[in-house]
Amino acid sequence: xxxxxxxxxxxxxxxxxxxxxxxxxxxxxxxxxxxxxxxxxxxxxxxxxxxxxxxxxxxxxxxxxxxxxxxxxxxxxxxxxxxxxxxxxxxxxxxxxxxxxxxxxxxxxxxxxxxxxxxxxxxxxxxxxxxxxxxxxxxxxxxxxxxxxxxxxxxxxxxxxxxxxxxxxxxxxxxxxxxxxxxxxxxxxxxxxxxxxxxxxxxxxxxxx
Length: 209
What we know:
Helices cover 7% and strands 42% of the residues. The chain is built from 2 helices and 12 strands.
């Protein structure tokens, strides 16, 4: 069964200790209530639009405000759409909280990686670089030769070269939920996840688990 996902905000990383004394690196997520804005039945699948984190009405367009007004939901900042099974029972105006998931469950987390700007090949692709001692004239971190011989006489597409690093959507699969704080509406998951502190994330049931 394909369920609706959850919109969260990354608070930061910490660590907790297991009963055996093992230090477990964790990421803390703010899972403020998600509200269902609309539910569209499209044959054998249902499109569910959810929103989270309050937004000032003057920062939204009239069409978006009308959608929130129709669902009787306070204007929100982040809006995402999920495809769920036709057996879905959600309707506009419903809310989802951290209880949507449970401790020990595996999820897939999607976020935008930290943008690092224009980066060289050593930082971007882990190149070794050129010799750092004799025989290299101030080009220790360069990519080296990128061209070909006269045949084919070109640089192939996809060649690893310097360029923009980060700032792209990335999904980490099979992240385990270690703990849930129902009072503070927090999800505590094992390991690191993409994005910077304060970045928004989408959580879904793990596809491969």
